[in-house]
Amino acid sequence: MADSIAQQLQQMAAQVVARDWQLPDDGSWHWVQSSPYARVARIRLDGREFYFKAFLSRTGLEPLKTALRGSRAARCCKNTRKLLEAGFSAPRILAAQTAGAVPWIVMESICGVAWADYLASYLTRPESRERLHWKRQLITDLGSQVGRLHRLGFAHGDLRPFNVLVDSVARQPHFHFIDNERSRRMPYLRERERVRNLVQINMLQAPQIQRTDRLRFWRAYCAAAGLSARAERRLRALVGRRLAARMAGRPAGKIIGNSSLSTEILEYLPG
Q1: What GO MF terms are annotated (predicted)?
Q2: Which of 80, 130, 132, 134 has its CA 20 to 30 A from that of 21?
Q3: pTM of the predicted protein model
Q4: Given phi > 0 = left and psi -120 to 50 = alpha, else beta, which region is 225?
């Protein structure tokens, strides 16, 4: 059954590309918003949902990068496989064309909501003791998940809040990493990669997120990442300064998706 669906998806996706992006007439495919360097469509087949993503050339250097490192589709397939093998959740890729002028993939749909949207939905509801506990659990678990990701040598290519999906089963948060074409696993995670990911995931701003919430994320991250006290102090300073620079001139407490730890990290930087 799975092989049959994968074959159908392979054939359908190849036809869409060959026909210059003309979608099937049966209404099973619908374009969705994406970056200028990709074409993304939602697919419904046999009662299930999938996503097609074609990788368009971003610069004139794209052919050289493909020759040296493989296409973006090939890298996404490889990185997703490594994440899954390490026990993380990511959309499984069921069909792909990793060579040619327009590489593409078809992946399963994950039942989840972007972290930024999930938290925004929570923050718009009246707070109760149960909801407060749930918010703290979410933030702690996210810190632990990112810390484990880094401890195992993974650097996500773009760990902004919209590239982490969250769902809950039996009131237990589950996180899924998407947009993995630039993710990679290294024998030793470089400090700049760690800082970059922490800045990205913390580009989330909301006045309802308290300083204690941000400390909760940070402490869970450091514990899961296995950082020494000295490494934690250095990392805290680096992330705080980078966030302050990124947020310079932006209004505070305004936009979901634009800050998280910035000023709060600076408040407890070592003197």
Answers
A1: transferase activity
A2: 80
A3: 0.86
A4: alpha
